[in-house]
Amino acid sequence: MAEKRDYYEVMGVERTASQDQIKKAYRKKAKECHPDFHPNDPQAEAKFKELNEANEVLSDPDKRAAYDRYGHSAFEQGGMGGGGFSGDFSGGFSGMDMGDIFGDMFGSIFGGGSRRRNGPSRGADISMTIVLTFEEAVFGCKKTIDVDTIDNCDTCHGTGAKPGTSPQTCPTCHGSGSETVTRQTMFGMAQTVTTCHTCGGRGKIVKDPCTSCNGTGRVRKKKQIELDIPCGISNGQTIRKSGHGQAGTGGGGYGDLLVTVSVRPSAEFVRQDRNILSDIKISVVQAILGAEVTIRTIDGEEKYNIKPGTQPDAKIFLKGKGVPYLRTPNRRGDHIVTVKVEIPTNLSDKQKELIREFGGLPKKESFSDKIKKAFN
Ligand SMILES: [Zn+2]
Ligand SMILES: [Zn+2]
């Protein structure tokens, strides 16, 4: 036997290549030197043979292990034994099924695009945003939204055929959407699979197209969709409504509707995840003496007794008065109220006098006191 090239070199892969890498390398190289693409080119033919030989060894873990250990001599007479592998390719690819090779090869090189592109495909998702008030997000709500979508044509029910007619099974491909061309090559019968030229891969042909959709089976539509907004949803969260996106083609099903919520801030409350924050203003006197006040919560008004001697920025915790948890609405965060003590700015003289007295300061002389003093 003439000097053989290293199988790894033939395949153009590292010795450490994975089976996947070997498979990919084989497909790439097979495409390059396939005799169908190089008719009457003995060099391409020789390369293709060499490549297939290398692939048969490297794609089989046992044979590969033997090759790694013993090199080409592993497959010479007395090596692996004559059973599955002869090492002699001159008589053609006796050990290989041509249909498998070609089916696999053309399936991956060409089929990935053409056949699937025209087959059933799922409709596109629709993404949109809705604006909610603070309360709608906290308590949840129902919303009806208008969605611009693509749906199946009502006139023809998505078939694309004029009412009263129906799409015919394509006579060329009998509905499969692909054509198999069988040719005689120097290695035997070669089959190539291509998209059916008659139906463009749909498997059906429409003789009388529906006039509403021009035979496409799909039309633009405005739909109203009911949305259940769960309580406790946060700004920026997205609700997915499965099957409410665009209609697919060839019976591929609908995409999804994705609605992202944008929550408007409240004038009164600040939301901090599950807690609600707000302020309450009280007077100095209320802070000192204590008082019954009314606090506004998301549930409504609530009476609360401010304790005597309450300090500025003291916190009032109203447990369970916050935002419901998204999936367990019985569980809620807290409402935290910060007490803001207002310092009065326009007191009467009398009030100021009392404050001085309260503060233990000397009594301030009034104008009339000064006059009296001067004349005494
Ligand atoms: Zn139609
Ligand atoms: Zn066809």
Q: Could you please describe the fold and organization of this structure?
A:
The protein is of the alpha+beta class and 376 residues long. The protein folds into three domains: 7-96, DnaJ domain (Helix Hairpins, Orthogonal Bundle), CATH 1.10.287.110; 126-263, Chaperone, DNAj Protein, Chain A (Ribbon), CATH 2.10.230; 270-342, Urease metallochaperone UreE, N-terminal domain (HSP40/DNAj peptide-binding domain, Sandwich), CATH 2.60.260.20. The protein contains nine helices and 15 strands. The protein has helices at residues 7-11, 19-33, 42-58, 61-70, 98-118, 134-139, 284-289, 349-358, 367-375; strands at 126-132, 141-152, 168-169, 178-185, 188-195, 204-205, 218-229, 238-241, 257-263, 270-272, 275-283, 291-297, 300-306, 315-318, 335-342. The protein is elongated, with a radius of gyration of 41 Å. The N and C termini lie far apart (142 Å). Bound molecules: zinc ion (ZN) (2 copies). One zinc ion is lined by residues 153, 155-156, 160, 210, 212-213, 217.
Q: How do the helices and strands line up, and which of them pair or pack?
A:
Elements: H1 7-11, H2 19-33, H3 42-58, H4 61-70, H5 98-118, E1 126-132, H6 134-139, E2 141-152, E3 168-169, E4 178-185, E5 188-195, E6 204-205, E7 218-229, E8 238-241, E9 257-263, E10 270-272, E11 275-283, H7 284-289, E12 291-297, E13 300-306, E14 315-318, E15 335-342, H8 349-358, H9 367-375
Bound molecules: zinc ion (2 copies).
